[in-house]
Amino acid sequence: MKTNWVGLIAASALLAACQMTGGLRATPGSPYVPNGQAVSGQSVDGLLVGHRLMAAGEYELALKAYYRAAGQQGMNADILSALGSANLRLGRLGQAERLLRLAVKKDQSFPPAWNNLGVVLMEQGNTAEAMQVFKTAYALDSGESDSIRDNLRLAIAKTQKTEYDRPDSNKFALVRRGGGQYMLLSTP
What we know:
Elements: H1 2-19, H2 46-55, H3 59-73, H4 77-89, H5 93-106, H6 111-123, H7 127-140, H8 146-160, E1 171-178, E2 181-187
Antiparallel strand pairs: 1-2
Helix pairs in contact: 2-3, 3-4, 4-5, 4-6, 5-6, 6-7, 7-8
């Protein structure tokens, strides 16, 4: 008889929990990212969700949202650029470069793709090519984006800086120790 009461109490607790509001449904005014289905029943744009996740520093989740957007909209330059940016933030430079080159090939007049490709090239040490890519992005953007202008300035500064200009700060003195032995001492 005792076990029947325990089972009855557990079952009623489960039923009460199922009837409570909340759970996995989206609530209006919630600070959380939508789970793909809007309250109105229409699907939320994966590209928008991905951009919000990127801003929040959730790059792996943003990548998944961008792939979902690609399934809905197809692989256009905007989605390829977003995928490349997410891979760049995750440190996957080879994948980022490949995706951004595809984005640039699909739409040669898309400044964000050119800029992000330049960032990848700078990270890989291809400063001269990055400078040319930033020049293209700057021209397409008509100089309106501060970040593209700053990236171009940095690339130009890095290509003009040579390692031979650094003064030799090492001062050495040769000291004779006797018996034909010499020792190098560094001086301040």
